[in-house]
Design a protein that fits this description.
The protein is mostly helical. It contains 9 helices and no strands. The protein is globular. The two termini are 29 Å apart. It comes from Goodea atripinnis. This is Lysophospholipid acyltransferase 5.
C-alpha cells in the first residue's frame, strides 16, 4: 500500500526506497532491519539489471528461449533460493554484534556475489547488447 501511495513521486526507484525506509522504521531502528531492507533494495536492483540485459541482448534472449531453458531456469532458481535467506539473517538477529558474526563466518558471500554481479553487468551489457539498441535506450 505504501508503494502505491507514493506513485505521485513519479519514480519507481524513489518509491521503492521510501517504502523500504518506511518498513525499516516500522519494524524498529535495529541495525539488522536497516541492513536487511538495504540489501533487499540492492538485490532487486541487480536482478532488474540482469533481466534488462537478457531482454536487450539478442544472444541472451535466444539462449533463454532455446532448449537450454530448463537448465537456465534451474541455475536461476538455485541462485534465488541460495540467497533468499541471506538478507533475512540481520532481520532475525537484530543487532550488529550478532549478524556480523554470521556474515563474517561465511565471508560476506552474498554481499560479494551481488557486488561482483553489479560491477560486471555494465561490461556484459557493452559486449552483448548491439550499439544501436544502447543508443535507443539512452534516447528513451
Amino acid at each position: 500500500h505504501v508503494f502505491k501511495r507514493l506513485k505521485f513521486l513519479g519514480n519507481k526507484t524513489l518509491s521503492h526506497v521510501a517504502t523500504l525506509f518506511f518498513l525499516t522504521i516500522w519494524h524498529g531502528l535495529h541495525s539488522g532491519y536497516i541492513l536487511c531492507f538495504s540489501m533487499e533494495f540492492f538485490i532487486i536492483t541487480v536482478e532488474r539489471q540482469a533481466q534488462a540485459l537478457v531482454q536487450d541482448s539478442p544472444l541472451l534472449t535466444k539462449l533463454a528461449n532455446s532448449h537450454l531453458y530448463p537448465l537456465i531456469y534451474v541455475v536461476q532458481q538455485f541462485i534465488h533460493w541460495l540467497f533468499m535467506g541471506y538478507p533475512l539473517v540481520p532481520f532475525c538477529l537484530f543487532t550488529y554484534d550478532k549478524w556480523l558474526k554470521v556474515y563474517s563466518s561465511i565471508y560476506f558471500c552474498g554481499h560479494v556475489f551481488f557486488l561482483m554481479v553489479y560491477l560486471i553487468l555494465p561490461f556484459l551489457r557493452k559486449t552483448l547488447v548491439p550499439k544501436k539498441d544502447q543508443s535507443e535506450k539512452k534516447q528513451n
